[in-house]
Amino acid sequence: MKVHIKKIIFDPSFEKSFEKYKNKLSDKKRNTLKERLLIFKKDPFDKKLKTHKLKGNLKNYWSFSVNYSDRILFRFIDKETVFFIEIGNHDVYK
Predict the structure, then answer these.
(1) Per-residue pLDDT tens digits for 47-87
(2) pTM of the predicted model, to two decimals?
(3) Which of 7, 11, 46, 61 has the highest count of CB atoms within 10 angstroms of its CB?
(4) Phi, psi for 87 (deg, rounded to 5)
(5) Pick from 70, 74, 71, 79: which is nearest to 62 by CA?
(6) Beta strand pairing status for 7-10 and 81-88?
(7) How does DSSP assign 12-56, residue by residue?
(8) Which is nearest to 34 in space by CA: 67, 78, 75, 81?
(9) DSSP string of 51-90?
(10) CATH fold of 7-93, please?
(11) What is the DSSP letter of 93?
(12) What per-residue string of b and e applies to 55-73 under the rule 16 or more CB within 10 Å gives b?
């Protein structure tokens, strides 16, 4: 069963981090970010994203790869809605 994300809710801290993150990117990396977000909306479990459920204190959350080192931390609200919490390197897990 494919899941299509129809709504993304952004935590206020995510919005702040996202702007800083996006402004540091080259045009090529910014395009990769846009591509990954589009893929995520179509299928959050696409192999390219390496989406995975987290463990321990973050067991209610998921993460997907923007690129080799950066992730977006999120949780599912329902089958069509997600809540983006943080973006960045592996420090998003702290």
Answers:
(1) 999 999 999 999 999 999 999 889 999 999 998 999 999 99
(2) 0.91
(3) 61
(4) -135, 140
(5) 74
(6) parallel
(7) HHHHHHHHHHHHHS-HHHHHHHHHHHHHHHH-TT-GGGT-EE--G
(8) 67
(9) -EE--GGGTT-EEEESSSS-EEEEEEEETTEEEEEEEESG
(10) YaeB-like fold (3.30.2310)
(11) G
(12) eeebeebbbbebeeebbbb
Q: How far is CA 92 from the centre of its chain?
A: 11
Tokens of 52: 């995975």
Task: Determine how many CB atoms are found less than 10 A away from the CB of residue 37.
Answer: 17
Domain ranges of the chain: 7-93
Which one, of 66, 77, 82, lies nearest residue 18 by Cα? 66
Each residue of 26-36: pLDDT tens digit? Answer: 999 999 999 99
Longest dimension (CA), the chain: 36
Task: Collect all residues with Cβ–Cβ distance below 8 Å to 50 and sequence separation of at least 6.
Answer: 64, 65
For 26, the token pair is 């080259």
